[in-house]
Structures are given as C-alpha cells and as structure tokens.
Design goal:
By secondary structure, this protein is α+β, with helices and mostly antiparallel strands. Helix content is 48%, strand content 7%. It has 17 helices and 10 strands. The strands form 4 sheets. It has a 4-stranded antiparallel sheet with strand order 1-4-7-6, covered by helices on one side. The longest helix is centred in the last third of the chain and has 34 residues. The protein is globular and about 80 Å long. It starts with a helix and ends with a helix. The N terminus is likely disordered.
Length: 501
C-alpha cells in the first residue's frame, strides 16, 4: 500500500533526524507511484533504520522501474547514446566490463547534470567516502599494508585499468554539445556502480542502481539473520520486504552475497572479521601462485578444500614429470622452472628465519562428494602406492609446504604488526586490511597443516617416523576448527589417493 499523506508530511522537513537527502529521494520515488515505508529513515551516520517496529513480511520499499538507473534508461537519453557509441568502439580493450563502464559514465552525467535522477544522485556517498578503496591508496600505503596479498597486484591493475578505460572512451568522444565527465567523476561513479549496482534487477539480466535500497548496509556470517529480501516484480519495479520482525531503532541490513574480504575491500572499502558461513566455510578465496598457474585455496570442510588441495599437488607433480633431461643435455625448461621455484622457497625460508617473527562470495558451488571419490587412477604411473609414485607425491607435498611457508613470510602485516592492526583502535584502512591478511594467513595455516598431516600419513603408511604437531594460529576454538578441517581433508585424500595396501 502507498504511504498515507500524513506520514509523508511527518518526514517532509527532516526534523525527525532523517537526512534531507533521504527525504527528497523518498518523495521522488513516491512521485512515480512508489512506496517507502513510513518507519524507514536514514540517520546522519547514513545508517538506514526503522523508527517504529515493523512486522515480518511488511513492504518496506517499492521502487518503480522509472526510478532505476540502468543501461535502458541511459539508452533513452542523449548523453547515453553518445556513451554507448564510444564504449562500443573500445569495448574489446576495456579493463572493466563494458556494461559497468557505460553505466558508470551515465551515472557520472546524472550526478552533475541535475536531471531526472538528481534526487537519487544526492543520496550517493561523497567522493571522499571511497578513499577506503585500495586503488585510491598511495603506493607507499599499498606496499605497507598489502605486500604478500594477491590483492596488491590486482589493485595496481584496477588503478591502471580505470585510467585506461577513461582514456579509451575519451579518445572516441566526438560530441561537442555534451561534455565528457571528468576522470574524477568517472572514478566516483565507477566506485558507486562496483559497490552498489544490483545484478539482474535492470531487466535482461543487467545491473541496476536501485535508489534507497542501495543505502542498506551489508551483514553476513555465522548467526546473522537476514533483515530484508528484494525481488524484481512483473512490472519491472523492485520490491523489498521485511524478512523478520524489526525492532524500533534497529538497522535494516541486506547481504551483498557470499563475498570474500578481498572483494569487499576492493569494491566496498571494508572487511569482515569473521567472514565464515554456518557450515564453517570461509568466503575468502586465496589465489595461490604455483609455477605456471594459480590455485584458489579456501578454508572450510573437505567439499571446499579437497579439489584445490589435489589440484595443487597435481600441478607440482606435473612439473616434476616434465622435469626430464632435454635432448641437448641438461634440464628441460619445466625442470629449470621447478628448480628455480624450489630455490626461491629455500631462500625465502632463510629470510623468514632471520626475521625472528612467528606467524601468528558469489557463492561457489560445493563439489559433489561422489565426484571427489570418483574414478581416481591408482596405477603404477599415477598416484597410487608404488614406491616411485609415493616418492613423487611426497616431493610434490614438500614443494607445496615450502610454497605455503614462503607465501606466509611475504606479508608485510604479520606477527606483532598484524596483531596491532587488528585492534579496534587501529586506523580503519589498517584494521580492514589486517582482517583480510589474517584470513589469508588462516587459509595458509589450514593447507600447511593438511600437507603436514598428509606427509605424516604417508610416512606412517610406509613405516617411517611421524612429524611433530605444529601450532595453528588463531584462538583455541578456531584452531580446533582448522585442525578438524585439515584432518577431514587428509582422511579423504588418503582414502582416495593412497588407500591402505
């Protein structure tokens, strides 16, 4: 139902503490026949909350299609037509998706043109609020906080890519009556699109900027309840309903999806201290570099860890299998790569010893247990129990262990520096980055423990001495969870790849 006129008047001047930008945008949405629940308000801290209790199932928002900022809306404007023409010419060379570039460029126009979306544009955060995005940090700050994390190189590519995309569009901008938005405005608009666009709500499976809905904060993790649910209605409007009873004064939050901290930091400028799902799986994926390729490591139950664990071993074994003398004598290129890789691991181990410091999304589909325990080949030339196969497997595991140890040692935030950055009083950029690093180190810990257990199990199977247990980082409960997940992983690994003779 549409909000009563009396309720509209109550919020019309912002005297109740609601930000004037919210009041104006809500009035604009209603002018197109939309609905904004009378209990919704946005505080000066930009938190959307309810001023009175709201029942489960209540309609919180109904945003008409005419209010959505989409590529379809852009296509109907003079500026949008020029944007599409320029973007279509350079599409193949863009770093960001052509849809994001086009939508961001259109939004940049709307943020400054004072047109039909001006009331929505006024609700967007100011440019300075995006300074939490790593691509806006100085080179010195990036190196201080992100050295060791795969996000460092990705951030550098994103920063260069933004400027490259702008220059490409500018090179094809032929209009004299419509000025191209500045790089600064494009930067701000692209940050808004990257962090606030809703997938599939713009029709034809395209993204949409949804006024008021995009002001709701993110909440996810173990024990977190969903406050609201949104969907696209048959007429193209976006409807938002309360998923549970909301107490007066409580914040209204969405979930942005099962996003890892690297994505949260690069797109939204924040991280979650405990970004773990109820099943114990982390949403953080560590892109772990091995010779010639990367493997996505993720902490969690075996359905998340077994595939990456075996992939890493197979990649290292494949490098070993190719490490044969070349026809001209000496080592093949693959062998040289492996030798160099192992030498680098040894060098890094030495550096770590000298330091004297101890090391403290969209959702992936689970692997099918039946697929995990499928038709693995345990023959003499595979990964079975022959002495040669076991020796090759052990060598690959040892190389994996060295790579994990070296990766852990490359982080600039570690030991006491990491612990200090995780404190509540630390600067926000330091604290959020520390959450990311701690999670990546946690993933390294799990796979390091799994490698140790696998080597121990192979040694025991062949009558050798077992290795001593290592201490996992984190609190006792988390360490127990990681050890349990590592044990579960190695149990599956031994059952599938090295069954008892």
């Amino acid at each position: 139902a549409t909000e009563p006129a009396a309720a509209q008047a109550e919020h019309s001047d912002g005297s109740d503490g609601c930000l004037p930008e919210w009041v104006a945008a809500a009035s604009w949405v209603r002018s197109f026949g939309g609905t904004v629940h009378e209990a919704l308000a946005m505080s000066c801290s930009r938190e959307v909350n309810v001023t009175t209790a709201v029942s489960e199932g209540a309609l919180l928002l109904r945003i008409p299609e005419q209010c959505l900022v989409t590529l379809s809306a852009a296509e109907g404007s003079a500026a949008g037509k020029k944007i599409f023409k320029a973007v279509s010419i350079v599409k193949a060379k863009l770093h960001n998706s052509s849809n994001d570039v086009a939508l961001a460029m259109f939004l940049a126009f709307e943020m400054n043109a004072g047109s039909r979306f001006k009331d929505y544009a006024a609700t967007l955060p100011p440019r300075a609020s995006y300074n939490g995005l790593p691509r806006r940090w100085s080179d010195k700050k990036l190196a201080r906080l992100l050295t060791g994390s795969p996000l460092l190189e990705r951030t550098r590519r994103d920063r260069e890519g933004l400027r490259q995309d702008y220059d490409l569009v500018a090179s094809r901008w032929k209009s004299v009556d419509v000025a191209l938005p500045s790089l600064e405005h494009f930067d701000q608009a692209l940050a808004a699109v990257s962090s606030r666009a809703f997938a599939g709500l713009g029709g034809d499976e395209l993204d949409a900027m949804v006024p008021l809905l995009d002001l709701l904060d993110h909440r996810r993790g173990v024990g977190q309840a969903k406050d609201a649910q949104y969907k696209r209605a048959a007429d193209g409007a976006v409807e938002v309903r309360a998923q549970r009873t909301l107490a007066a004064g409580s914040a209204v939050c969405l979930t942005y999806g099962a996003k890892g901290n690297a994505q949260l930091l690069s797109c939204y400028g924040f991280c979650l201290r405990r970004n773990v799902e109820p099943d114990g799986s982390s949403n953080d994926v560590l892109e772990f570099a091995l010779p010639g390729a990367t493997v996505a490591l993720r902490a969690g139950p075996k359905v998340y860890t077994y595939g990456p664990f075996v992939k890493a071993i197979e990649m290292l074994r494949d490098t070993q299998r190719k490490s044969v003398p070349s026809p001209a004598g000496g080592l093949s290129a693959e062998a040289a790569d492996m030798d160099q890789f192992l030498d680098e691991m040894d060098d890094m181990d030495g550096m770590c010893d000298l330091d004297g410091e101890d090391e403290g999304g969209e959702e992936e589909e689970k692997e099918d247990d039946e697929e995990e325990e499928g038709d693995d080949n345990h023959g003499e030339d595979g990964h079975g129990n022959s002495d040669a196969a076991t020796a090759a497997e052990r060598k690959a595991l040892e190389a994996f262990a060295s790579a994990l140890e070296a990766a852990s040692g490359r982080y600039s935030l570690r030991g006491a520096a990491l612990a200090e950055a995780l404190q509540e009083g630390a600067p926000p950029h330091d604290r959020f980055t520390a959450m990311l690093v701690a999670s990546e180190q946690r993933t390294i810990d799990l796979f390091s423990e799994a490698v140790r257990l696998a080597l121990e199990a192979l040694a025991t199977q062949h009558g050798a001495t077992a290795e001593k247990k290592r201490k996992l980082s984190g609190n006792d409960d988390d360490a127990r969870m990681l050890r349990s997940q590592a044990e579960e992983l190695v149990s599956a690994y031994m059952k599938i790849r090295h069954p008892s003779r």
